[in-house]
Amino acid sequence: MSLFSKFLSIQQAREEILQSGINPFHLTIEKINSPTEGVINGRQTILVGTNNYLGLTFHPDCIQAGQEAIAQEGTGTTGSRMANGSFSSHNDLERAIADFYGMPHAIVFSTGYQANLGVLSALAGPGDTILMDGDSHASIYDGCRLGGAEVLRFKHNDVPDLEKKLRRLGNRSQRTLVIVEGIYSMLGDRAPLKEIVEIKLKYGATLVVDEAHSLGVLGKRGRGLAEEVGVEEGVDCIVGTFSKSLGSTGGFGVSIHPEFEFIRYTSRPYIFTASPCPSVVASTKVSLRIIRETPQLRKQLWENAQTLYDGLQKIGYTLGAEVGPVIAAMIPSKEQALGMWQGLLEQGIYVNLMIPPATPNGESLLRCSVSAAHTPKQLETIIQCFANVHSSLKEQTPSLQT
Amino acid sequence: MTTYPDILPQLLETLKPYAKKIGTLKETTDLVSELGLDSLQVMQVLLKIEDQFDISIPLNNLPNIRTVKDLGMEIEMLLKA
Predict the structure, then answer these.
(1) What is the tally of structural domains in chain B?
(2) Residues A348, A45: contact at Cβ < 8 Å?
């Protein structure tokens, strides 16, 4: 037995999958042509698994801003903001995010993962409690653990279970942080935020909402689920990422509380890492402006989501309950999911293969993320290719015959 | 006050459906290596036990719970708190 022995079970699981002749582990996009097209295994491929919801990665204004920032400020910052100083552009971006959300305080992190780590670990420490949704993203799990608070889990989207757990805490509920996501990344379902805000207020807890998948997607101004359901005033803090709708990398936290600024002095994921590089900061700021000024992008995204959802449903796929930019087709077994994923790839369609243990309820999923940049022709092709692999699934699984 | 001897029979009853493969459940039965529970089943069992005893089991304590006895002792501690 050595330190490396623990990898044996992973190696075995990997070998098992590779024996099927399919290798989903090292997918490489050899060339990226646009927000929705690339070359994979030498084949022109429509990308339907990139979380590029608004298709801004190739927006000329974002590219120009990034290029100018590199020319003016250099390729990197070479240090952390605490130790090596902020660039003016970091402060500008924080002001832009605060303004976008209509909240007075914003902090930028180098990735979305670090935003959750940084905010959650700083807000809830020893003696405090965190109540998290059971289907939360790994960054939330890790952020909860990093701070040293007691961590409890409630059943996914189950408000009565959340309330039961707050009730059991008694007076400690006032030192409890509740964390939920606007849109959950695997199945694309939304948190019942209105009800969660009511419960949070009733028990005096603090509510953080991760809008990673809902920023730019939901709400009149694209702020996310809290805006969509009209409960922004009941949310203490929002965390999010630049790496989806905003088309770059990085993360942020915004809050109504003045004390939020002190996170800068206590948050290790903020202090002990290099600050975001100038090109990323510049293109993100432009993306934020585009989200504000171009509501038709959101409209297009939802039209595309509806088209793909309807198309896949018509074929006979079992989908997540809600229409949205994340559309997950549930496949009866891991083996079938692998085969269908490969079948799609061979037809020039890239979606995300999601298999246990990374999925809720042990589901095997073919997960699509729709983009406003998908054309009607691309959507038609995607649906046709899904129909083709569904036919082969039906041949393998007679119970699916309809 | 509910103590470990009171908790154990209730706990064994709750875990029974998960022990079909191994037959008899003992205090020393390892929940993961012997019962073969995956992470999803662990979560389902814990939620059931939480409701049964009206407690919330912190995730922080899970690494220390390996056997049926460990789980019973954890429940006792949370009921006392």
Answers:
(1) 1
(2) yes
Is A185 one of the catalytic residues? Answer: yes
Q: Of A59, A90, A105, A244, which residue is the catalytic one? A: A244
pLDDT-derived band at A64 (thresholds 50, 70, 90) equals: very high
Domain limits for position B42: 4-80
- B40 to chain A: which residues are within 8 Å by CB? 356-357, 361-362
Helix axes A278-293, A295-315, angle to 10 degrees: 80
Contact B38 A165 (CB under 8 A): no
- Would the pLDDT of A401 be above 50? no
Q: Tell me the C-alpha distance between A195 and A199, whole Å.
A: 6
**A383 CB within 8 Å of a chain B CB:** no
What is the rounded average pLDDT for all residues in chain A? 94
Q: Per residue in B33-70, pLDDT tens?
A: 888 887 778 888 999 999 999 999 999 999 899 999 99
Q: Which ipTM score applies to this complex?
A: 0.90
Using DSSP's 3-state secondary structure scheme, residue A363 falls into: coil
| Structural domains for chain A | 18-47+295-400 (3.90.1150.10), 59-293 (3.40.640.10)
The enclosing domain of B64 has a CATH number of: 1.10.1200.10
Identity (one letter) of the amino acid at A100? F
